[in-house]
């Protein structure tokens, strides 16, 4: 038993040749001296003088004891039994140790314990790990009893287990969170094949869906459902009934398809709502709710758009400085080692390739050197051309609208004259974007910036679209308002006449009320506007889907299958497969949302339709992209934030707020339909509520607040705050840029320093070799032993000659310190000095075979 | 106890790959090694583009055949409990195709080709390799030593996330 123990110590000696082990040597020697064991001390001497030989021996030993070692690792408890006897045999010796030595021993035990706990972190072969572990465990077992502490193992095991569980839980939770994000996998799949720019559209679409869901919840929860549950039922009022003349065809599909008939007189549109102040037993103030929901839709949208813009901006500045290792990280960390499924692996390969391509495009762009004057000239030229195009199409739209106004006054105009505006608009929408793209080729921007320009230009073109639409609508509304005045009188007289006639016939019997279907009614311009928006949205959906089906899917099928029997190569040649049109799709989404915002006040059901549209569009477009599109020729990375899309959305939101605000503030609501009928203006509902439902002083406060004397200073204050905050943020930005520059410079400096170090190091080493000539002789046999990959000590990548110098954090201090420190023989004979010298650079981790650069270790090691 | 169970399970996996070669009983310390072909067909490794390199760097003879000890070694390093430094060391070994203790351009090209299934053009590959060297090579010797590698990898945000493996 004892002999084996000694061998174990030798192993130790061989493998851990550093200060601490030397101290242990001394310790052991001391103890052995007491025991007066000749053999042991001889062996120890050998261990000191010829460590390499020992090392070999220890390796052999390690191999022999593999099996036992494994057992030791598995069942640590058994080992305890084995070593108890030796511990007891030694215990008598331990008692005689002085206090100082006891402290030292304690330290060693701690170190051994640390070694055991960090064993799994060492890059050693299992064989070696086992032998070292066994040895360390024996040591701890033996001396822990002497020092009077044996607990902690269980606690440690428990801690380890908890840590493991915690890690697993965290990972599961992360997975769960990812699974909770809707369509995350779908989008990731698209991203892996088409790049982040295409994925950014789908992310935008998903975000839009989320916003629309909230709007839908607001409108349905606070307006439509209360009206259906508690409002007067269908047929009870003229506004809730289909007029007699239309009743025959009210259920026909063609009528319903135009959103007339029963759909027009349903809770989906403004006109259906009654102006009763409170409805149902809840005394729900429906008109008030309608108004507030209409306002809060805009409020919420504005808030959410701006908040998300701010967050995006924050994120893009927060991690903007990590771009030092783009390619390296992509190369070494992009493979996901959890992948075990062939399909996922395919996606991962595609996504890695795509992301490499994206970065390559960026890199090429930044390295491009060309004739800057020519480029500038071409860019100016392209902008001039595009401005010409825009002006031309603007004038064309203006001209066509003017013409259509004259046409509308004429009778019996043809089909073309009636639909001229629409035809011209759709022709412009069809031909201008490709034209812009062609012109943009002159500019030769980075595709990401090119996309922004393209978006901006098409946006400007589509504004014309919006303008004509609103203009036509306003004409319509004005016409309806004029018509309404006439109808109002008729209705009045009809009702009066009905009453009179019934009163004249028989005054005792109450006259049978006029059937609501027979009451003459006004045109209700609000519902007309609502229907217009709904129609537009639905036709937009249909056009989008049919375009995708024909333009992408049919085309892809044609190219794919007809290619077998065609004169030229269809796939490479003319039609080829479609690319995903990011700009068109994003703008389609943005303008559609504008329609929703404008229309939702007059057609509460519109948001529901939109939610359905976005939902189907997600699945349909994902499918279409994956089946029938090809990635862009230059796959480019999307900008970090979607802020450009958000900016467009904000602009559209603002633009769509204007007409709605105008109609609310300055047009009188219809007299016989809608929640605000009978009032002069729609916003009167607020005043009414305040006057009737709140105490008097609230009304007073409100009137004060509405005073221009208060509002103008408030606006001034806000402007000043904006100015101040803007200045502050500018200052932060500057500071940020400064810091970034400093960091970059530091990095360069470090690089240079390292370069210099390599060049000066051989000289330094020669100098040190003069002092300690034994270095080389010891080093070489070991190198021969660990053939190519790994030395038995495992940390070979760290300890190859020439590498160590670079690795050591402070080679000067560490190297010199090791070189000039007294040789071990001296230390053994003079233990006190050593004790004082303990806090050396290599001291804190004397047992470890450090993985990273450790001062004093890489150089110091081979010397002893 | 939990560690023992783990090793037991691992041994089960090891045994089931070649039931007639691997004994159930390890008390006699048999010298059994499984060839690489068997190991890389494990579901955990099957889809990995670096599977051959992984197995090679864990095998003691460098040929790719694994003894049970090496096998346990491999799983302990690839497990998520293994510390970052250890993973970095083995990652370095895996990417060092020609085992010269440096990741040179040839290694980078091989890595890239395995990662992208050779879908990049030659110029793109050259560009990427040059960029990697330029980014990570701190001492200017035109190849990545372990120090460079560790310095680079330790700054990577998702290294840990991607470099572990389920048991």
UniProtKB/TrEMBL annotation, chain A:
Locate the TMC domain: which residues?
524-639
Q: Output the InterPro entries linked to this UniProt entry.
A: TMC, TMC_dom
Q: Where in the cell is it found?
A: Membrane
User: What Gene Ontology cellular-component terms does the record carry?
Assistant: plasma membrane
| GO molecular function per UniProt | mechanosensitive monoatomic ion channel activity; voltage-gated calcium channel activity
| UniProt biased composition (Basic and acidic residues) | 29-82, 743-753
| An example Gene Ontology biological process | detection of mechanical stimulus involved in sensory perception of sound
Membrane-topology annotation of the record: Multi-pass membrane protein
Where is it chiefly localized? Answer: membrane
Residue segments, region Disordered: 1-100, 743-864
Q: Which UniProt keywords apply?
A: Membrane, Transmembrane, Transmembrane helix
Q: Which residues cross the membrane?
A: 207-229, 288-306, 380-401, 421-442, 454-474, 595-616, 644-665, 701-725
The organism's place on the tree of life at top rank: Eukaryota
Polar residues bias: start-end ranges: 772-782
Q: Which family does it belong to?
A: Belongs to the TMC family.
What is the name listed in the Swiss-Prot or TrEMBL entry for this protein? Answer: Transmembrane channel-like protein
From TrEMBL, chain B:
Which superkingdom? Answer: Eukaryota
Q: Does the keyword Calcium apply?
A: yes
Which residue intervals define the domain EF-hand in the entry? 46-81, 83-118, 124-159
Q: Which UniProt keywords apply?
A: Calcium, Cell membrane, Cell projection, Cytoplasm, Magnesium, Membrane, Metal-binding, Repeat
Subcellular locations according to the entry: Cell membrane, Sarcolemma; Cell projection, Cilium, Photoreceptor outer segment; Cell projection, Stereocilium; Cytoplasm
Instruction: List this protein's GO terms for biological process.
Output: calcium ion homeostasis
GO terms of molecular function: calcium ion binding; magnesium ion binding
Q: Which InterPro entries match?
A: CIBP, EF-hand-dom_pair, EF_Hand_1_Ca_BS, EF_hand_dom
Pfam families noted in UniProt: EF-hand_7
Record's SMART domains?
A: EFh (SM00054)
Protein name (database record): Calcium and integrin-binding family member 2
Recorded source organism is: Picathartes gymnocephalus
This chain is encoded by the gene named Cib2
């Amino acid at each position: 038993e004892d002999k084996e123990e000694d061998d174990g110590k030798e192993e130790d000696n061989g493998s851990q040749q550093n200060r601490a082990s030397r101290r242990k040597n001394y310790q052991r020697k001391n103890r052995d001296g007491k025991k007066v064991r000749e053999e042991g001390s001889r062996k120890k001497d050998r261990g000191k003088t010829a460590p390499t030989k020992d090392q070999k021996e220890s390796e052999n030993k390690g191999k022999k004891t593999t099996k036992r070692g494994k057992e030791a690792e598995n069942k640590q408890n058994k080992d305890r039994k084995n070593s108890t006897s030796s511990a007891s045999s030694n215990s008598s010796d331990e008692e005689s140790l002085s206090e100082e030595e006891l402290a030292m021993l304690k330290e060693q035990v701690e170190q051994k314990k640390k070694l055991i706990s960090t064993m799994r972190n060492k890059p050693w072969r299992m064989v070696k790990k086992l032998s070292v572990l066994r040895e360390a465990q024996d040591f701890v077992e033996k001396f822990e009893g002497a020092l009077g502490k044996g607990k902690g193992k269980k606690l440690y095991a428990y801690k380890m287990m908890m840590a493991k569980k915690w890690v697993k839980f965290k990972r599961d939770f992360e997975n769960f969170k990812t699974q909770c994000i809707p369509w995350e996998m779908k989008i990731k799949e698209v991203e892996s094949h088409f790049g982040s720019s295409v994925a950014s559209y789908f992310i935008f679409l998903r975000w839009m869906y989320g916003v629309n869901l909230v709007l839908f919840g607001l409108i349905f929860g606070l307006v439509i459902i209360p009206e259906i549950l508690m409002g007067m039922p269908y047929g009870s009022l003229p506004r809730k009934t289909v007029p007699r003349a239309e009743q025959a065809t009210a259920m026909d599909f063609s009528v319903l398809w135009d959103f007339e008939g029963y759909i027009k007189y349903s809770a989906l549109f403004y006109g259906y709502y009654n102006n009763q102040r409170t409805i149902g037993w809840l005394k729900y103030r429906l008109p008030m709710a309608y108004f507030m929901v209409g306002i809060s839709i805009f409020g919420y949208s504005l808030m959410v758009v701006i908040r998300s813009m701010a967050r995006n901006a924050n994120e893009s500045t927060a991690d903007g400085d990590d771009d030092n290792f783009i390619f390296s990280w992509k190369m070494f960390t992009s493979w996901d080692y959890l992948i075990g499924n062939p399909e996922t692996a395919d996606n991962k390969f595609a996504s890695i390739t795509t992301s490499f391509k994206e970065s390559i495009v960026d890199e090429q762009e930044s390295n491009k050197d060309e004739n800057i004057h020519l480029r500038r000239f071409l860019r100016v030229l392209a902008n001039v051309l595009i401005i010409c195009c825009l002006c031309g199409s603007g004038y064309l739209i203006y001209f066509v609208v003017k013409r259509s106004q004259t046409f509308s006054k004429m009778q019996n105009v043809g089909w073309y004259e009636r639909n001229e505006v629409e035809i011209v608009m759709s022709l412009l929408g069809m031909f201008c974007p490709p034209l812009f793209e062609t012109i943009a080729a002159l500019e030769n921007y980075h595709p990401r910036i090119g996309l922004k320009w393209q978006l901006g230009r098409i946006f400007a073109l589509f504004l014309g679209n919006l303008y004509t639409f609103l203009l036509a609508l306003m004409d319509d509304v004005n016409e309806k308002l004029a018509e309404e005045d006439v109808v109002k009188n008729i209705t009045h007289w009809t009702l009066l006449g009905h009453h009179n006639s019934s009163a004249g016939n028989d005054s005792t019997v109450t006259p049978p009320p006029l059937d609501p279907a027979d009451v003459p009614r006004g045109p209700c311009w609000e519902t007309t506007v609502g229907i217009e928006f709904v129609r537009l949205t639905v036709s937009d959906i249909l056009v989008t889907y049919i375009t995708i089906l024909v333009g992408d899917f049919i085309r892809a099928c044609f190219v794919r299958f007809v290619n077998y029997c065609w004169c030229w190569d269809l796939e490479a040649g003319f039609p080829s497969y479609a690319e995903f049109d990011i700009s068109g799709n994003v703008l389609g989404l943005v303008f559609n949302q504008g329609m929703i915002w404008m229309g939702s006040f007059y057609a509460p059901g519109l948001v529901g339709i939109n939610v359905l549209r976005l939902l189907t569009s997600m699945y349909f477009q994902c499918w279409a992209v994956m089946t029938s599109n090809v990635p862009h020729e230059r796959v480019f990375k999307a900008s970090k934030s979607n802020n450009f899309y958000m900016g467009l959305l904000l602009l559209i939101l603002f633009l769509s707020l204007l007409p709605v605000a105008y109609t609310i503030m300055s047009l009188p609501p219809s007299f016989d339909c809608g929640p605000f009928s009978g009032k002069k203006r729609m916003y009167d509902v607020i005043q009414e509520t305040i006057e009737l439902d709140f105490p008097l002083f609230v009304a007073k406060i409100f009137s004060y607040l509405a005073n221009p004397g208060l509002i103008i200073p408030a606006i001034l204050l806000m402007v000043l705050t904006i100015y101040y905050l803007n200045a502050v943020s500018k200052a932060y930005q500057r500071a940020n840029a400064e810091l970034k520059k400093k960091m970059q410079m530091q990095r360069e400096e470090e690089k240079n320093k390292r370069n210099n170090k390599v060049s000066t190091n051989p000289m330094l080493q020669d100098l040190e070799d003069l002092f300690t000539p034994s270095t080389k002789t010891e080093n070489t046999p070991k190198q021969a032993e660990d053939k190519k990959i790994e030395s038995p000590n495992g940390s070979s990548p760290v300890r190859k000659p020439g590498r160590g110098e670079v690795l050591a954090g402070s080679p000067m201090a560490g190297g010199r310190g090791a070189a000039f420190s007294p040789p071990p023989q001296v230390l053994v004979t003079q233990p006190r000095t050593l004790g004082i010298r303990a806090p050396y650079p290599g001291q804190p981790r004397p047992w470890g075979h450090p993985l990273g650069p450790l001062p004093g270790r890489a150089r110091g090691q081979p010397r002893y | 106890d939990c560690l023992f169970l783990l090793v037991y399970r691992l041994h089960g996996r090891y045994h089931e790959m070649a039931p007639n070669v691997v004994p159930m009983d390890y008390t006699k310390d048999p010298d059994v090694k499984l060839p690489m072909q068997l190991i890389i067909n494990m579901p955990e490794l099957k889809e990995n583009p670096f599977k051959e390199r992984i197995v090679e760097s864990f095998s003691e003879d460098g040929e790719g055949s694994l003894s049970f000890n090496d096998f346990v070694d491999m799983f302990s390093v690839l497990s998520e409990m293994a510390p970052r430094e250890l993973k970095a060391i083995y990652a370095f070994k895996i990417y060092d195709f020609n085992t010269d203790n440096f990741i040179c351009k040839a290694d980078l090209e091989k890595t890239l080709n395995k990662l992208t299934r050779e879908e990049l053009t030659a110029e793109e590959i050259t560009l990427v390799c040059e960029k990697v060297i330029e980014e990570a090579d701190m001492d200017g010797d035109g190849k990545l030593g372990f120090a460079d590698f560790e310095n680079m990898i330790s700054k990577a945000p998702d290294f840990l996330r991607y470099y572990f493996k389920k048991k």
